[in-house]
Amino acid sequence: MAKILVTGGAGFIGSNLVDALIKNGHKLVVVDDLSSGLKSYINKEATFYQLDISSDELEPVFAKEKPDFVFHLAAQIEVAKSMIDPRHDAKINLDGGLKILEACRLHEVKKIIFSSTGGAIYGDTDLIPTKEDCPAYPLSFYGIHKLTFEKYLNLYYHNYGLNYSVLRFANVYGPRQFKGGEAGVIAIFTDNAVSDKTSYQFGDGRQTRDFVFVSDVVAALISVMEVDYQGEINISYGLESSLLDIREALNKALDKKILVEEKPAKPGEQRRSCLDNSLAKKILNWEPKVNLEEGIEKTVTWAKNKNS
Ligand SMILES: NC(=O)c1ccc[n+]([C@@H]2O[C@H](COP(=O)([O-])OP(=O)(O)OC[C@H]3O[C@@H](n4cnc5c(N)ncnc54)[C@H](O)[C@@H]3O)[C@@H](O)[C@H]2O)c1
């Protein structure tokens, strides 16, 4: 049994991770400012601190709790918001990140695991499926700050011996996803579909993303805890799915034709995205188990219960 601190543990991925770690018998501490996460998502067995990771309240929590492992998921996660207010993004994703790293160093954390992004780091690349060594040219402040924090981790490892791994997620989806999130398309379409509202499709619907179900992401996060690998690992389903595929899966899960209005394409929208997950298979002995149809069915079941 280990003492584990999860930043962002009231959020979509973080709260699913906390539940799984508690099930595995670990002692959990959650740090979250509830800016997008919900208190009701926090497992009752976890010790909860409501605070901003970029504040001075963070370090005393480490001093008191002395975690063995840290999963760092708290973040400003919206690409568009980062373009409107880059300094706010930097305050949370860089300054906040540095506060976490200093606390890990001072209190001798064994390992930190960082939730990073594939899509926003690789930018608009033709190298598909994209491997970890693809040149990184982020096209947003969010992507640049995520990449910069990965470099901070490497620096802390070399200078202070702080072990780390970085998991670069594709588009994560599933129960508890916040509708406005980075990869919100399944969350938005599902939420609208279960309440008979219209969703908007921009362009021909053939644009693709790589959608990975949250339980597979949680399994990958847990599997990296005991692995000695300081570097970046893609976590993805490894196949492209289009918006038309999502519509079809939702029609099937709900046994009706969901309401969609087609609008002109958004200028500059990335056409394709897919991450190569062979490194994760090799290093973590992990592979995704939930396909799009099954994952959407589970997400629909959750959304129906939430709305009932
Ligand atoms: N969802 C995806 O598809 C996806 C893809 C790539 C990477 N990620 C990364 O995974 C992590 C989790 O994302 P998510 O989708 O669960 O998002 P989320 O918004 O549901 O979770 C983020 C959590 O962090 C908390 N938080 C935000 N700012 C904070 C601050 N300053 N101090 C303390 N807590 C703060 C929020 O309240 C929320 O509970 C993020 O780091 C995100 O960048 C997510």
Can you give keywords for this protein?
Rossmann fold; single chain; 308 residues; binds nicotinamide-adenine-dinucleotide; 13 strands; UDP-galactose 4-epimerase, domain 1; alpha/beta; 2 domains; 7-stranded parallel β-sheet; two-stranded parallel ribbon; 18% strand
Description of the molecule:
- This protein is of the alpha/beta class and 308 residues long.
- The chain has 2 domains: 3-171 and 214-235, 3-Layer(aba) Sandwich (Rossmann fold); 174-210 and 239-274 and 289-302, Alpha-Beta Complex (UDP-galactose 4-epimerase, domain 1), CATH 3.90.25.
- Helix content is 41%, strand content 18%.
- It has 11 helices and 13 strands.
- It has helices spanning 12-23, 58-65, 79-84, 86-106, 119-122, 141-160, 185-194, 214-223, 243-254, 278-284, 292-307; strands at 3-7, 27-32, 47-50, 69-72, 111-117, 163-169, 171-173, 199-202, 208-209, 211-213, 232-235, 241-242, 260-263.
- The protein has a 7-stranded parallel β-sheet, with helices on both faces. The chain has a two-stranded parallel ribbon with strand order 7-10.
- α2 runs parallel beside α4, α4 (86-106) runs parallel beside α6 and α7 (185-194) packs parallel to α9.
- The mean pLDDT is 95.
- The protein binds nicotinamide-adenine-dinucleotide.
- Nicotinamide-adenine-dinucleotide binds next to α1, α4, β5 and β7.
